């Protein structure tokens, strides 16, 4: 069976192949989440945002506002707990095209 | 948004207003760290440093300050910190248009540079009205009709507009 994180990495690469507006933002876990596959396939559309989950959500909303399709990649426990307020305030309330 | 403009090759400039109290939030420091890494000269943050937050800390006895509670950043060299993080800093009197406009123009003119700009605007909370100036309670207080009349008078605003 294929590991979940390999599915994640390969899917991000496919999304990147199918649409030039797809970006991936990482919070310094790409080699664990396998988002590094996207970094290798599309280095110019891979944005390392550091260990800073709140701000990477905010940055994604800004990128969506100029027409990009940002995908945020992190561990669920960091992403949903540390960044819940920006997810609610910045993404949900503005209906930004952030995944 | 500034990062998106850079990636897209768009020329617009992004301005962000932040407060001195709000600057205590961790998320702002995440952005302060990452913006210079992406060389976002097309980004300007304006820090409204009015020296008061909603409730804050009580002043020490005989402590001198333009507000009636402690400064959110008492005696701290924020400019030095921002500069070491990679920001270009301008310091202005935030009530003086002859300083505000050149600072904004200078920001836009440096849009192609590789350093974001921080305009540190020194301000007074509740400026221009005797009973609101430097009073933390006006961070979150609603004026009564009577108070509004006095405010309009002191600011030279026609009452009909209030």
How would you explain this protein's 3D organization?
The complex is a heterodimer of chains A (99) and B (162). The mean pLDDT of chain A is 97. Chain A has helices spanning 4-18, 30-33, 36-41, 53-65, 76-82, 84-92, and strands at residues 22-26, 46-48, 69-73. Chain A has six helices and three strands. In chain A, helix 4 runs parallel beside helix 6 (84-92). By secondary structure, chain B is α/β, with parallel strands linked by helices. Chain B has two domains: 2-123, Thiamin diphosphate (ThDP)-binding fold, Pyr/PP domains (Rossmann fold); 128-162, no CATH class. Helices cover 31% and strands 15% of the residues of chain B. A four-stranded parallel beta sheet of chain B has the order 1-2-4-3, with helices on both faces. The A-B interface holds A 23, 47, 49-50, 52, 54-56, 58-59, 62-63, 65-68, 86 and B 1-5, 7-8, 10, 14, 26-27, 30-31, 33-34, 37.
Summarize this structure briefly:
By secondary structure, chain A is of the alpha/beta class. Helix content of chain A is 55%, strand content 13%. The longest helix of chain A has 15 residues, at 4-18.
Show the helix and strand layout.
The complex is a heterodimer of chains A (99) and B (162).
Chain A: H1 4-18, E1 22-26, H2 30-33, H3 36-41, E2 46-48, H4 53-65, E3 69-73, H5 76-82, H6 84-92
Parallel strand pairs in A: 1-2, 1-3
Helix pairs in contact in A: 4-6
Chain B: H1 2-8, E1 14-19, H2 26-37, E2 43-49, H3 78-85, E3 88-93, H4 97-109, E4 117-122, H5 145-155
Parallel strand pairs in B: 1-2, 2-4, 3-4
């Amino acid at each position: 069976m294929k590991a979940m994180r390999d599915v994640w990495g390969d899917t991000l690469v496919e999304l990147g192949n199918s649409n030039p507006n797809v970006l991936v933002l990482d919070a310094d876990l790409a080699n664990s989440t396998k988002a590094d596959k996207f970094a290798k396939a599309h280095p110019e559309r891979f944005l390392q945002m550091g260990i800073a989950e709140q701000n990477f959500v905010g940055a994604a909303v800004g990128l969506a506002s100029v027409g990009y399709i940002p995908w945020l990649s992190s561990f669920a426990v960091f992403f949903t707990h540390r960044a819940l307020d920006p997810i609610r305030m910045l993404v949900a309330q503005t209906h930004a095209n952030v995944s | 948004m500034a990062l998106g403009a850079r990636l897209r090759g768009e020329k617009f400039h992004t301005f962000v207003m932040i407060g001195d109290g709000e600057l205590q939030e961790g998320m702002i420091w995440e952005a302060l760290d990452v913006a210079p890494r992406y060389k976002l000269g097309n980004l300007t943050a304006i820090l409204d440093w009015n020296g008061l937050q909603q409730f804050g800390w009580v002043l020490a006895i005989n402590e001198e300050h333009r507000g009636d509670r402690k400064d959110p950043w008492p005696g701290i060299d924020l400019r030095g910190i921002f500069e070491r993080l990679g920001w270009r800093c301008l310091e202005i009197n935030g009530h003086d248009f002859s300083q505000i406009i050149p600072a904004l123009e200078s920001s836009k003119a440096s849009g192609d540079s590789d350093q974001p700009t921080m305009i540190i605007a020194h301000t007074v909370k509740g400026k221009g009205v005797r009973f609101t100036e430097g009073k933390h309670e006006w961070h979150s207080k609603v004026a009564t009709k009577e108070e509004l009349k006095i405010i309009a008078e002191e600011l030279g605003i026609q009452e009909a507009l209030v």
